[in-house]
């Protein structure tokens, strides 16, 4: 065994050799830091310790001299890196500030899996060969969600679990929702959106009610169809979202109502077991005219004054 001490421009080095002249240990100190390396019987470095401006590092090397494991602290952030036989980083474990991170890379040193933890909860991501996010699993205090992304990394489908149920959504290439399904303990609903993200079609089941909703642009005008334990109902809304026509069939019979722009009923057509009637009201919701055909008494007509109580004309 022998040792050599050398002086270079920016520092000094100490090397120890075996009887065959192969280096077995080397110590180097420069202005940038200090390193200590240990070599095997053929002179390949297998273990190294370095302290630089970035922080201390511990290196383990394979038989071919390629780095396989690195443990260190980089600017106060601990880091563990595991490499393949070609020295390519394949697994990295670190802590960024107060967030632990785990990355798994492919043979091209591209990140393909990432696992992290922030103040809201853990997150698991899967990446393609261009390191674009293609799937993301997130768990927080209130939500567990899975998102599937396109080749640009934009979410295109998402499944979320909340306290009382689950939801599923599909997005277009601009990130606007186009379809959504929600199921909770109280209801289940399905909605379809237009290219602006506005709901145009909705289907919901709430307790004893089933509803179907068709909407125009800006979600104003539309048609609503529902079925409850009392019977079916059909409603029409104008461009301002005001209900203008309402048709229902309940235990007493069918009824058709017409409303003004203030959603006040102005005409009502009603059919019951006693007969049929048509009533007209004014803008103050006062009854002004009634046309009825009863099964027993026959047809009748009445007109009322502005109070809606006093008859001013009737027939017969």
Account of the 3D structure:
The protein is mostly beta strands and 316 residues long. It has a domain at 1-63: Outer Surface Protein A, domain 3, CATH 3.90.930. Helix content is 0%, strand content 67%. The protein has a 29-stranded antiparallel β-sheet, with no helix packed on it. β2 and β3 form a beta hairpin. The radius of gyration is 39 Å and the shape is rod-shaped. 6% of the residues are buried. The mean pLDDT is 92.
Into which percent range does the helicity of residues fall? Answer: under 10%
Order of helices and strands: EEEEEEEEEEEEEEEEEEEEEEEEEEEEE
Beta percentage is over 45%
Q: Terminal Cα separation, in Å?
A: 133 Å
| Derived structural class | mainly beta
What would the CATH topology of the domain at 1-63 be?
Outer Surface Protein A, domain 3
Number of strands: 29
Number of helices, counting only DSSP H or I runs of 4 residues or more: 0
**Whole-angstrom Rg:** 39 Å
Shape: rod-shaped
What composes the largest sheet? Answer: 29 strands, antiparallel
Mean of pLDDT: 92
CATH architecture of the domain at 1-63: Alpha-Beta Complex
CATH top level assignment of the domain at 1-63: Alpha Beta
As residue ranges, the low-confidence spans are: none
